Amino acid sequence: MMVTTHATVGVALGAVLLQVRPEFAVMAAVAGFLGGLFPDLDFLFEHRKTLHFPVYYWVAAVPVAVLAIVFPSDQTIAVLFFVVSAGIHSMMDVFGGPREFRPWEHTSNQAVYLHYRQRWLAPRRGIRYDGAPEDLLVATATSVPGLLLFEGQFRSLILVGLVVSGLYTLFRKQIPEFTHGRE
């Protein structure tokens, strides 16, 4: 899925705090946004393996959640929402397409690396590939809480992300030709 989809899921997750602990909602949404982005920084290394941890983020989230409940602060809430959003990102990629450059061609059966089992999880293809129309639909739906509930620069950032998502979706299948030529 698109990195913007993962980021807006993190924002939507953080928006939940507006109902129960509004003083932490913006911090949670920003941390969720960043946690949603974080795993995809591994495109610099081995994508969907280096920073994607579909199990370990959840293992880390348990003690962090306890800490955030016992000692709620901007810091503990931020770490919790960052880790949970990174975990959600890692799991979401399993339900998307494979990690290949042209995922609509179905030449790979690798979605996300499962470190403790030392093997790749197969893509479930609920979202056929990053930038597919259904990916844009999820990005749009998960942008709504952030657009409605937050203000200022953060709302603008979400809106810019949504525009980038739309453009990416529009040109997704042409990107391999622009970057690698015809193979």
Would you write up a description of this structure?
This protein is mainly alpha-helical and 183 residues long. The chain has one domain. The chain has helices spanning 3-15, 17-20, 25-37, 56-70, 74-92, 133-149, 152-171, 175-180, and strands spanning 112-114, 119-121. Helix 1 runs antiparallel to helix 3 (25-37), helix 1 (3-15) crosses helix 5 and helix 4 runs antiparallel to helix 5 (74-92). The two termini are 24 Å apart.
Keywords:
globular; 58% helix; two-stranded antiparallel sheet; 8 helices; 183 residues
Instruction: Please tally the helical runs, counting DSSP H or I stretches of 4 or more residues.
Output: 8
Relative helix content: 55-70%
What percentage of amino acids are in beta strands?
A: under 5%
Q: How would you sum up the global shape?
A: globular
Tell me the distance between the termini.
Answer: 24 Å
Computed over alpha carbons, the radius of gyration is 17 Å
Number of domains: 1
Tell me about the biggest sheet? 2 strands, antiparallel
Low-pLDDT stretches: none
Order of strands across the main sheet: 1-2
Q: Give me the count of strands.
A: 2
Structural class given helices, strands, pairing? mainly alpha
> What's the pLDDT, averaged over the residues?
95
Helix/strand order: HHHHHEEHHH
What is the subunit organization of this protein?
Answer: single chain
